[in-house]
């Protein structure tokens, strides 16, 4: 009897040891609320909506310790809509992220699959709209710079360096996977961050060639690319500074499109020979108490387009204000208001204001207010 007890104890210790060297975590976030908009297609509307602030997700992430500071890592993440139970990206099981790779304490991280680009990774955390518990309503018009992660990069290999004296670099390449068309629907990006004490600085670049215009290459037709183009380039710099319970962020991004064509998920049904946007954002976060936080942002976006239907210089002013109360580390409630004023493009598809996640207004002004609940697991 004693031998059996001792044997069971040894097996238990061994099992714990094996488990300690690998882990798999199930996680997720649900965000739902009521949204009022003064003008969507000419009418005011009250809606129950999801993901007005944070993307709704569930996923699996894990790692296995291989020894010597080396680990295998993976992530499988699904986006969904709690209002109807549908996946965000049609025809996919893990449409938000799906990758596997190796992570080394000494040499950095190398991953393969469907992943964020460097603009999302490096500039996203500086914007009010970002890739974490962000604020989708606060995205720059049409999320033209992908700071709010409207699309992801398929068939990609990504390298992220170790952090050295606050500096970290990353690079990504998304293959077209097309025979005889190496550069057709491919993507590449790179970025660098510097994070020491209260200072966080970042710069990033992204380029798509024929993104979502052909086949299932680096960007698929399921992704929310508002302006599929023969070439899209995004570049930006920004930073934030933390002062006690407050942080202030500044961000500039510049997006260039060549020869755009409306796609399956385009919200602007107009083609352009050339189109560009400059986005200038300032944002503030302030923790009133550990449970109560306030946030706000102002963005000015200046655009220009040219094509067979004419040319124009649209502009957008957008103000976002938000208050959040955390019941716990997992659950919070929020209230938010967004105002956008669009002008300078009368007679074009950009004439009406268009807050991200909503339908376009018939006038140059649009106001949205939402109250919602988020919970994480």
TrEMBL record:
Matching Gene3D superfamilies: Porin
Membrane-topology annotation of the record: Multi-pass membrane protein
One GO cellular component, as annotated: pore complex
Annotated signal sequence range: 1-20
Domain of life: Bacteria
An example Gene Ontology molecular-function term: porin activity
SUPFAM superfamilies: Porins
Localization per Swiss-Prot or TrEMBL: Cell outer membrane
Quaternary structure annotation from Swiss-Prot or TrEMBL: Homotrimer.
Keyword DNA-binding: no
UniProt KW keywords: Cell outer membrane, Ion transport, Membrane, Porin, Signal, Transmembrane, Transmembrane beta strand, Transport
GO biological process, one term: monoatomic ion transmembrane transport
Domain called Porin: residue spans: 8-340
Protein name: Porin domain-containing protein
Organism annotation: Paraburkholderia steynii
């Amino acid at each position: 009897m004693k031998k059996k007890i001792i044997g069971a104890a040894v097996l238990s210790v061994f099992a714990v040891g094996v488990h300690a060297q690998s882990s798999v975590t199930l996680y997720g976030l649900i965000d739902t609320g009521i949204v009022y908009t003064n003008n969507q297609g000419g009418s005011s509307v009250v809606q129950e909506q999801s993901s007005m602030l944070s993307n709704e997700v569930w996923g699996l992430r894990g790692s296995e310790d291989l020894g010597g500071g080396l680990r295998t890592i993976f992530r499988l993440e699904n986006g969904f809509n709690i209002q109807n139970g549908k996946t965000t990206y049609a025809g996919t099981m893990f449409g938000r992220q799906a990758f596997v790779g190796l992570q080394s304490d000494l040499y950095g991280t190398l991953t393969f699959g469907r992943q964020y680009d460097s603009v999302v990774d490096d500039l996203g955390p500086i914007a009010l709209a970002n890739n974490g518990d962000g604020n989708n309503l606060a995205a720059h018009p049409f999320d033209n710079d992908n700071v709010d992660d409207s699309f992801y990069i398929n068939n990609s290999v990504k390298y992220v360096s170790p952090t050295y004296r606050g500096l970290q670099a990353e690079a990504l390449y998304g293959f077209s996977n097309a025979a005889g068309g190496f550069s057709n629907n491919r993507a590449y990006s790179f970025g660098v961050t510097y994070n020491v004490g209260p200072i966080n600085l970042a710069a990033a670049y992204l380029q798509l060639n024929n993104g979502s215009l052909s086949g299932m290459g680096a960007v698929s037709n399921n992704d929310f690319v508002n302006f599929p183009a023969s070439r899209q380039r995004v570049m930006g710099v920004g930073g934030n500074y933390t002062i006690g319970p407050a942080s202030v962020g500044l961000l500039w991004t510049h997006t260039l499109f060549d020869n755009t064509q409306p796609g399956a998920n385009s919200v602007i049904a107009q083609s352009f020979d050339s189109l560009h946007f400059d986005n200038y954002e300032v944002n503030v976060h302030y923790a009133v108490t550990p449970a109560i936080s306030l946030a706000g942002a102002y963005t000015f976006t200046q655009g220009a387009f040219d094509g067979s239907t004419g040319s124009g210089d649209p502009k957008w002013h957008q103000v976002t204000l938000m208050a959040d109360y955390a019941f716990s580390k997992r659950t919070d409630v929020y209230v938010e208001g967004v105002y956008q004023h669009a002008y300078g493009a009368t007679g074009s598809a950009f004439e009406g204001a268009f807050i991200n996640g909503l339908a376009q207004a018939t006038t140059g002004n649009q106001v949205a207010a939402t109250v919602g609940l988020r919970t994480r697991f």
